[in-house]
Amino acid sequence: MNINEVDRLILFIDSAKATRLSHDNFEVLVKNRTMECNDDEYIMMEITESTMRRDFYSVQSFNKHFDIFYSTTGKSYNLTEGNPSSASLDSELKTDFENEFSISNGHTADETFTVSWSVYTGKITISSTFTGTVPSDLALDTDVANSCYEVIGFSKGKHEFTIDGQNISLTGDLSINVLGEQNVYMRVTLSNSNFSNNTEGLLDSDIVAKFPILVQPYSNMTFFNTGNLFTSRIMQNKLTGFRVRLTNENDELIGLNSNFTCTLTFKKYRISKDEIKKSIDSLLRLERLKLLKNNIT
Q: Is 77 helix (H, G, I), strand (E, B) or coil?
C-alpha cells in the first residue's frame, strides 16, 4: 500500500482578522479554498508555527475565589485579577482577613493578621493573636467554584487554623504559584484522532497543540514545530472552516488580550495499492481462471 501527498494548503491565521468572540476564541473560514477527500483520501493538519503575547493574567475569573470560614458559614473573597507578586499576595490576604475580623464587620475588635511567605519553602503562613473571641471552626476554604487554591498555595479543601488560646496560625500545604498557568492548549473543532487521559481512561480530545509558558509576562511566546510534533489527522472528508480556542488545562479560555497568529499546514493524502502488488494479484487471478477452465474441460 502506498500513501502519497496529493494536495497541500498552507493557512496563515490571525485572530485579529477573524470573526471572533475574543483573541482566544475565534472562527477560521476556508470558503474559497475548500479541501475535500474521496473515500481513499484523508487530511493531516500540522501546527507549523505560532506566536502570542503572554498578556493573559495569572489571576483571572476562573482562579480567584476563596472563603474565610467560621461559625459554620463561608464568607466569600476574591483575589484581584492581574499578575501578583508574593508580596502583593501576602498584603491582599492580610487585608481580607483584617476586613473580615473588624468592628465594622460586627466583631468586638479590629484583629491584626500577619501573612508571610517563606523564600525557602514557597509557602504562605497566616497568623494572628486575637483580641476578641477566636472562632473554634476558623478555616480557609479553597474548595469553592473558581478557586484560587493553586495561586495561594493550598490544596483544594477546607484548611482549619491551629488554635492555641488566642493565637492562631495556618501554613499552606503547597508552594504559591504567582505565575499562573504552565501551558496554553490549542483546541480546534475538527474531529481528530487525539486523546486525553482521565481517571476513567482515554477520552477523545480536541487538543491539537500544547505550548509551554517559558517567558515572563508581556513577552512574546513563539513556537516552531520541529520534527512534526503537533500533527493531527482530520476525520472529516471536507475542510471548510473551524473554531480555534486557546485554553488552560481545564478547558477555560486563557484570557489572551492581543492577537494570536499561527501557520497551519493541511496535507491531503491518497491511499493506493502498490503497483507491483496489483500486477501480482492480477497474474494470480489469471492463473486461477486458467486452472478453473482446465478443471471444467
A: strand
pTM metric for this prediction: 0.81
Integer CA distances (angstroms), 186 to 106, 108, 157, 233, 247, in order? 48, 52, 30, 15, 7
Non-local (6+) Cβ contacts of 277 within 8 A are none
Do residues 179 and 56 lie in contact, with contact meaning Cβ atoms separated by under 8 Å? no
H/E stretch holding 276 reads helix 275-296
Q: What is the pLDDT of residues 67-101, one digit of tens each?
A: 999 999 999 999 999 999 999 999 999 999 999 99
CA distance 186 to 217: 19
CATH code for 2-53+184-272? 2.60.120
C-alpha angle 254/255/261, rounded to 5°?
A: 80
- C-alpha span between 220 and 53 (Å, rounded): 4
In sequence order, what are the residues at sequence separation of 6 or more whose Cβ sits closer than 8 angstroms to the Cβ of residue 180? 56, 57, 58, 59, 60, 63, 83, 151
Instruction: For residue 220, count other CB atoms closer than 10 A to its CB.
Output: 11
C-alpha cell belonging to residue 100: 473580615
Taking only the tens place, the pLDDT of each residue in 53-69 is 999 999 999 999 999 99
The whole-angstrom separation of Cα 246 and Cα 204 is 18
CA distance 132 to 110: 8
Q: Indicate the Cα dihedral angle 161, 163, 168, 172, nearest 10°.
A: -30
Reading the block at residue 158, the C-alpha cell is 477546607
User: Which positions of the chain have pLDDT values less than 50?
Assistant: none
CATH 2.60.120 domain locations along the chain: 2-53+184-272
47 by Cβ neighbours in 10 Å (0-12 / 13-18 / 19+) ranks as buried
